[in-house]
Design goal:
By secondary structure, the chain is of the alpha/beta class. Helices cover 30% and strands 14% of the residues. The strands form two sheets. It has a nine-stranded mixed β-sheet with strand order 1-2-3-4-7-8-9-10-11, with helices on one face. It has a two-stranded antiparallel ribbon with strand order 5-6. A hairpin with a 5-residue loop joins strand 1 and strand 2. The chain is globular, with a radius of gyration of 22 Å. The structure holds S-adenosyl-L-homocysteine and iron/sulfur cluster (SF4). Iron/sulfur cluster binds next to loops.
């Protein structure tokens, strides 16, 4: 099978020691992306066929019906195509051997199954990998937008951190993505594409041999967990995020357990219960402070949905139990939210909610105004949390040297002047 990636542009072995900025990529703006040559002009104006990969199963059935497939054959054809896309990972219709030529041709004329272009691949000294991907242009895009996606391998598992938006509407003051203007939501296809690209790059298809790399998982699934902790606020892109979760969990395809798919939100309270009901995914809350006045500054959505409202939504999260706890993320910011009193209040605040606490050492980025708490203080803070019965609460930062750690992601994509003016 062929994985038709434009790997000429990949800086495949870009193992870096320090200071490589995720944001340090050439800016693609409408002004500089399509200059001079007729080829470049054509490429810039070319409309992209909708991608079949990442389209909900029901949508695929409708497409097949529109292409003239008889009702009684639709289920079988859908199953065949689903298999080729998600089990085999093909990027060329000719490889769908049990799908007849006529249907393959019709599909190819109307729908793409290609991957996004990898603009840059970086591999951290700790094995973490980060890809900057350029999505094919959709209607309304002046250029192909870029997003980052991070793979965090461990010995027996691997976590893929996906983006849900290009940029973010919210502007949490400690987050790099928050400094990038919201460009647009990603489609479910563009969310699923991140998984496909990751599988291509780590050699995770049945036709590929398991790569012997001690930094990759030695046993178990290479991508065992997905977290929506990349760029963007997933609950502000509800439909596409929901559809993508349901595709990730589809037992005939990617087949990830819903308990291994975690959605992290800054606290978009009005969609919390709904996403739990409609996907059964795990929930992570970016809490970061126990005081409304501090949280108003750190996570400004708190002005709309305060701590009390947020915690009430957590108590009501469908399926929440000691076996299915909510993760509370708490970034450690020196002299802002890291006092022992804060730790005690945190324990008191979460009383009665089946919870895990994740203390995240603040990951700095160029221009950030905060400092990470001293290690000694993080340990003291963690001790209070530990004593209250929460196990191993400190999250080890991964991929800091390639700016792949929590909150360090950002791309150079900008909203075009034309779209902004609307
Ligand atoms: N928008 C969602 C998901 C993406 S952010 C959310 O806010 O939850 C993923 C996690 O990284 C969040 O908990 C976020 O608060 C945290 N984060 C953001 N910037 C960070 C930074 N500089 N250092 C450490 N964690 C950060
Ligand atoms: Fe957006 Fe999450 Fe960053 Fe806040 S922390 S700006 S919600 S990506």
């Amino acid at each position: 099978m062929s994985h038709t990636l434009d790997i000429a542009k990949i800086n495949a072995n870009a193992t870096t020691q320090n200071g490589v900025l995720g944001a340090a990529v050439a800016e693609t703006t409408p002004e500089n992306s399509a200059e001079a040559t007729p080829e470049a002009t054509e490429a810039a104006t070319k409309t992209t066929l909708p991608n079949l990969v990442g389209m909900p199963r029901e949508a695929l059935k409708t497409i097949l019906s529109e292409l003239g497939i008889a009702d009684k054959a639709i289920k079988m054809r859908t199953a065949q195509i689903w298999h080729w896309l998600y089990i085999a990972g093909v990027t060329d219709y000719t490889e769908m051997r049990n799908v007849n030529k006529d249907l393959r041709q019709k599909l190819a004329e109307n729908y793409s199954i290609e991957r996004p272009e990898i603009v840059e691949e970086q591999i951290s000294v700790d094995g973490t990998r980060k890809w900057l991907m350029r999505m094919p242009k959709l209607a309304g895009d002046a250029v192909g937008h870029e997003v980052e996606c991070v793979y965090i391998p461990e010995q027996t598992r691997g976590t893929l951190c996906v983006s849900s938006q290009v940029g973010c509407t919210l502007s949490c003051t400690f987050c790099h993505t928050g400094t990038q203007r919201m460009v647009r939501n990603l489609t479910s296809q563009e969310i699923i594409a991140q998984i496909m690209v990751a599988r291509d790059r780590i050699g995770n298809w049945p036709s590929m041999e398991r790569v012997k790399d001690q930094n990759l998982p030695q046993t178990g699934r290479m991508i065992s967990n997905i977290v929506y902790m990349g760029m963007g606020e997933p609950l502000y892109n509800y439909e596409h995020v929901k559809n993508a979760i349901n595709i990730m969990a589809d037992g005939d395809g990617i087949a990830l357990s819903r308990r291994r798919i975690t959605l992290s939100t800054s606290g978009v309270v009005n969609f919390i219960e709904k996403i739990g009901e409609e996907t059964g995914c795990m929930l992570a809350i970016s809490l970061h402070s126990v005081k409304d006045d501090v949280r108003d500054i750190l996570v400004p959505i708190n002005k709309k949905f305060n701590l009390e409202t947020l915690l009430e939504a957590c108590r009501n999260y469908p399926g929440v139990s000691n076996a299915r706890r909510i993760t509370f993320e708490y970034v450690m910011l020196k002299d802002i939210n890291d006092s022992i009193d804060d730790a005690k209040q945190l324990v008191a605040l979460l009383k009665g909610i089946p919870a895990k606490i994740n203390l995240i050492p603040f990951n700095p980025w160029p221009g950030s105004e905060y400092e990470c708490s001293d290690w000694e203080q993080i340990e003291k803070f963690a001790e209070v949390i530990n004593r209250a019965g929460y196990a191993s609460p400190i999250r080890t930062p991964r991929g800091r040297d390639i700016m792949a750690a929590c909150g360090q992601l950002k791309s150079a994509s900008k909203i075009s002047k034309k779209v902004r003016a609307k």
